[in-house]
Amino acid sequence: MPSPILADRAEGLAREWSLNVTRVEETPTSLLAFGNRGEVPVVLKVFRESGDEWNSSAVLRAFRGHEMVEVLDYRDGAILLERLSPGTALAELTVAGRDADATEILAETVLQLSEANATVDGIPTVKDWGQGFAAYLRSTDSQLDRGLVERGQICYEKLAASQQAARLLHGDLQHHNILHDSRRGWIVIDPKGVLGEIEYELGAGFRNPQESPDYYTSREVVEQRLRIYTSRLDVVPERVLAWGYAQAVLSAVWLVEDGIPVAPDAPQIRLARTIESMLPPGP
Questions:
Q1: Which residues in 170-191 are b (16+ Cβ under 10 Å) and which e?
Q2: What is the mean pLDDT of the chain?
Q3: 75: which strand partners?
Q4: Residue 165 per-residue DSSP state
Q5: Any bridge partners for residue 93, and if so which?
Q6: How many angstroms separate the CA atoms of 243 and 229, rounded?
Q7: Low-confidence residues of the chain, pLDDT below 70?
Q8: Is-contact 186 88, C-beta < 8 A?
Q9: Rounded distance between C-alpha atoms, residue 81 and residue 152, angstroms
Q10: How far, in Å, CA of 79 to CA of 53, rounded?
């Protein structure tokens, strides 16, 4: 059940925005109310607390007209969005054996977003996001191989320090955050917003969709995805691969931070080790 405060806020915004709510769902970070405003299908999203998506309305508005879901109204910590129909996730293509098609669509989406040249004040940088490595290494947690975390940290920090042309990125552009709409095609949802180079944006795609870990952790799939990304986008292949590795390690660190157990063979770890075997030897 949502907290009374969250539910009350959602009900208040529904009244203010004249919404007819037909269904309510909860996620770990928000409450979602589906319904209509007049004849327009909408989704009201109310965030539980300040976090990565708190400023998503500003990021969505900055990318307006470039494959992002449309913002209809917003308040601090809440946002009213167009409802996509049927809202099928890009993940379903991969699950159906069409990962090459899904990767082509993801690459095209990255290209469309990069052409927006969008800006938002107060957005964190990828360097800021990398602080989790040091925090983990200072901790007493023993779930992760500390050598792997240390190597991931070194790789991540080198990449962050040598970036070219940092720009506003989605920050979590993967198969569950790209949905199909019958009118508009493939549309992006749930941006976090981070400043970094375009190669960074491709990292999340390597470790998704989450329901197919045996698939996306294989070297063959990593190589196929890398070929598609580099054929469609003006990116440096070595940096795309290195970001995929470093972010896979960092994603395991974030799970620990969130109190989620991480096994030695967790998908994030398996992916990191697969990509690490593909990287050139370090100095």
A1: bbbbbbbbbbbbeeeebbbbbb
A2: 95
A3: 78
A4: S
A5: none
A6: 13
A7: 1-2, 282-283
A8: no
A9: 37
A10: 11
